């Protein structure tokens, strides 16, 4: 091996011509980019952003007049992060959109590797079918269509139904794990009783003895609003988290882990006038305002919200919530990429 010595400093021209010659071999000097790569804390192009329900809703209904569910496959207005122009992404890992299904419509059957969750915002009479199980959906219900499960949606009611979709799509694309398949027919056969997963796994801590789901996602596919809200409201507020108020996670009833392997989902309550302490963590979050009027401060900027508004909080941004009402609770639904970060030992949290 040739010996390298530095007895005489190299001429600047020599260095720059050496560097210029590297690119043709697809080589590059790490020492020039080390500081940009190994940042002391996470850096993100994702920007905090609030989407207002009063701006989304009329446009979604207009989309309903202009585009059929059949033509659209899914009639959704995507919530596109202003810092990630050109990408279908709400944060760097999470995608969210608002879907509309009109009375009598069917959104055809398909499956894909991204996990999907839904939180029903408005309208009665819609359903989702997941792997042969029909799941009627009402406002406030939280419904899963996990990785590679066949799913279609329909509306048997008389009013438009709207819900928030949450998918790990940007993460799946980054990991190049995308698979998608349309079903041969528009709808799939119903092979299980309606709400079968609720009958089997939705009865508190009681689980069937003859089977124990080993799937990586929750075997319970719907978390009904009435029970979720009741569970949240029945808790005292004394022992609540200083950062999140009273917060419950929608868990896999078998493992106690997140409902989906890539996304954790939560319902939280802020009592009238409550202000949480600021913190930050290495997970990004999408919030949906379910009830109440409040404000979330993200890196010093205040975002005031009312029901139906959606808020993206990027990784490692300092954030704190406030319920601005003196008499009404605020309830937020949210989902995060924290399970992925924890699984990879990348999760960090800091109180400020
Ligand atoms: Fe889908
Ligand atoms: Fe947080």
Classify the secondary structure makeup into a structural class: alpha+beta
List all distinct small molecules, including ions and cofactors, that are bound in this structure. fe (ii) ion
Under CATH, the homologous superfamily reads Jelly Rolls
Most strands sheet: 6 strands, antiparallel
What would you note in describing this structure?
The protein has helices at residues 12-20, 34-37, 53-66, 69-72, 169-174, 196-201, 225-234, 338-343, and strands at residues 49-51, 76-78, 95-101, 106-112, 116-122, 126-130, 133-137, 142-145, 151-155, 161-167, 180-182, 222-223, 246-249, 264-270, 279-281, 285-291, 294-298, 301-305, 310-313, 319-323, 330-336, 349-351. It is globular. A hairpin with a 2-residue loop joins strand 17 (294-298) and strand 18 (301-305). It is α+β, with helices and mostly antiparallel strands and 352 residues long. The model has no long low-confidence stretch (mean pLDDT 95). One fe (ii) ion binds at residues 243, 279, 281, 319.
